TrEMBL record, chains A, B:
InterPro entries in alphabetical order: Homeodomain-like_sf, HTH-type_TetR-like_transc_reg, HTH_TetR, KstR2_TetR_C, Tet_transcr_reg_TetR-rel_C_sf
PANTHER family referenced in this protein's UniProt entry, alphabetically: HTH-TYPE TRANSCRIPTIONAL REGULATOR RUTR, HTH-TYPE TRANSCRIPTIONAL REPRESSOR BDCR
Lineage: Bacteria, Bacillati, Actinomycetota, Actinomycetes, Pseudonocardiales
Domain HTH tetR-type: 14-74
DNA-binding region: 37-56
Protein name: DNA-binding transcriptional regulator, AcrR family
Highest taxon in the source lineage: Bacteria
Alphabetical keyword list: DNA-binding
Organism: Actinokineospora alba
SUPFAM superfamilies assigned: Homeodomain-like (SSF46689), Tetracyclin repressor-like, C-terminal domain (SSF48498)
GO molecular function term, any single one: DNA-binding transcription factor activity
Amino acid sequence: MSELVAGAFPDVTAAAARRLMAAAVESFADNGYHATTTRDISTAAGMSPAALYVHFPSKAAVLSAISLSGHERALAIVEAAAAGPGTPADRMRVLVAEMASWHATHHRIARIVQYEITALPKADYTTVADLRRRTERVVRALIEEGVTTGVFACDVRSAARATLSLCVDIARWYTAASTPGPAELGKRYATLVLAMLGAGSR
Amino acid sequence: MSELVAGAFPDVTAAAARRLMAAAVESFADNGYHATTTRDISTAAGMSPAALYVHFPSKAAVLSAISLSGHERALAIVEAAAAGPGTPADRMRVLVAEMASWHATHHRIARIVQYEITALPKADYTTVADLRRRTERVVRALIEEGVTTGVFACDVRSAARATLSLCVDIARWYTAASTPGPAELGKRYATLVLAMLGAGSR
């Protein structure tokens, strides 16, 4: 298990829980969520099966912890960028660069976060759906501000959806061997999105 | 099982095979590929477990048939659009409109096609990877042509990736309840992509 994955849950305070979450990401990515057992996860984390239950009541609880942490991180990224300095175009450039590079760096986590959403327990699914709506609202409000102030020219709703879509889909195709690296990919995607929003045309 | 899904494999000649593929799409979407059995698929298709083996030697073979059909369809859509009449911008508008609307209309199939790729048998994975490369090459060549002729202004490689990414990611978030409908979504996405490629700025 890579340090990169284990370091991806800075909001989870117990080191053992972070290790289990990182091991679960690897197991889910390799074998699928449904085919993974709690024993697979604890073994991959170098822990006893019983140790897992100290932190998580079930496999679904591990998935929920990964998914909630990932969705909260995505929301934090867009909120920080949208509240940053500069014009809507400046802030959107930061937003896309950070979202794209997070999804490239943490593509294995992001895949679980994005594609295993239907396996979540109902209450956690509701929380995740709410985090997604809030994330989309932040992006939409920033584009709206840009359109209102004449910085952008686009259909706000579709453009917000497309902007997030571009960043999220990186998790599907990006691998450790992909080029360019996360930071450079983020920059290029930011340039593409600004053009898409009509920022380049004025 | 919906007629829409069963009608989505026009290249598969045996009606029973199409029914089994459509039933598999529903089962994989509801329970995940790994948790689905060949019995689940045949039952959902209203057929005996033995009837499945007349058409497919295994569950993996059903997945392969769905994945190959979907990837061939995607390649056919981009090839037809790229070979169509008009400027690179005209052809790109058709390409995105058709790819986006196919992924919206067939979002359940597209989800299997896009996200269950690691479960494919090795030989079929190689074929699918080749179909993906060819699809991306067609899109890249069309953008390249647009840049060369001064119709587009963008980084060709990132823009090709982003264009396909936008269309493919529709399968992740689109549901039967989503608005706008597939055709209108395709139109809006085509407009966004043309702006992203720098077509609107001249």
